[in-house]
């Protein structure tokens, strides 16, 4: 039976490269001199922390990071921004959480989308991914098109893998 998986994963090597490029640019840019700005990927690779001595510098560092991520093919939909918070001594930081895997609520929304569209496919939740099966390839491609159309509204980064005929 033809099937494919809907997953949400970030290429961690590309993310690491984008962060390193951003650090290098921040260290050489004139507007960041004396700003003590830093970008750190958490050891468990679930979040990015941007630290600086002002909110403007945090925003500017984020504006350097995001295009570098996009250029490396990383979806910006996989990022969830926490509010900027003060850390003391006039320093501030912002935590950016990385989405790895599809949350259960979003999986349920995707299953509901398929059912409402009355497609001839079945969607089943398998951990942090979604498996879609159908009788023919055209139905599966229609389901992929539906998911891509709703991707922005759901604020969900999706990749389609293991397409089997």
Low-confidence stretches: none
Beta strand count: 9
Tally the helices: what do you get? 4
Q: Largest beta sheet, briefly?
A: 5 strands, antiparallel
Radius of gyration: 19 Å
Question: Strand-and-helix sequence, N→C?
Answer: EHEEHEEEHEEHE
Approximate strand percentage: 25-35%
Shape: elongated
Chain oligomer state? single chain
- Assign the structural class, choosing from mainly alpha, mainly beta, alpha/beta, alpha+beta, or little secondary structure: alpha+beta
What is the helix fraction of residues, given as a range? 25-40%
| Average of the residue pLDDT scores | 90
**What is the CA-CA span between the terminal residues?**
7 Å
Describe the structure.
With 165 residues, the chain is an alpha+beta fold. 39% of the residues lie in helices and 29% in strands. The protein is built from 4 helices and 9 strands. It has helices at 12-28, 55-71, 104-116, 137-154, and strands spanning 3-7, 38-41, 47-52, 79-81, 85-88, 91-98, 121-126, 129-134, 159-164. Strands 2, 3, 4, 5 and 6 form a 5-stranded antiparallel β-sheet that branches. Strands 7-8-1-9 form a 4-stranded antiparallel β-sheet, with helices on one face. A hairpin with a 5-residue loop joins strand 2 (38-41) and strand 3 (47-52). The N and C termini lie close together (7 Å). The relative contact order is 0.22.
